[in-house]
Amino acid sequence: MRSPLDDKLGVRVTDWNPERLVATMPVDGNQQPFGLLHGGATCTLAETIGSMAAAVHAGPDKNVVGIELNVSYLRAAVAGNVTAVCTPIRTGRTLSTFLIQIVDDQGRPTASARLTTMTLSPPQ
User: Fold this and answer.
1) Domains of the chain, with CATH numbers?
2) Rounded mean pLDDT of 77-98?
3) Which position among 23, 26, 45, 47 bears the catalytic label?
């Protein structure tokens, strides 16, 4: 369930179960012009693992799509990796919401995100 964008950004899932999904992403190669981790890369990391968590909850016979992503940037990441931990806030039949907390290598919060997804039946 990887995408070409995840490969380009170096997103790697390191742990997953129905209650918690963890992924890492390098800062190097994903910076904006001032050397800080790009906000778009942070959003991609959050949406990737939130969508994966939603897909695990929905099951193999359903599709999921993100319908809202909110991200608050808390601290600039400038080197190493960031780690994102995704936990469900609410999982329903149609709508699910996930909290994604992102930290740097020192464990300092760099961003907090909330993703809401919609579960769809595949087209017949």
Assistant:
1) 4-120 (3.10.129.10)
2) 97
3) 47
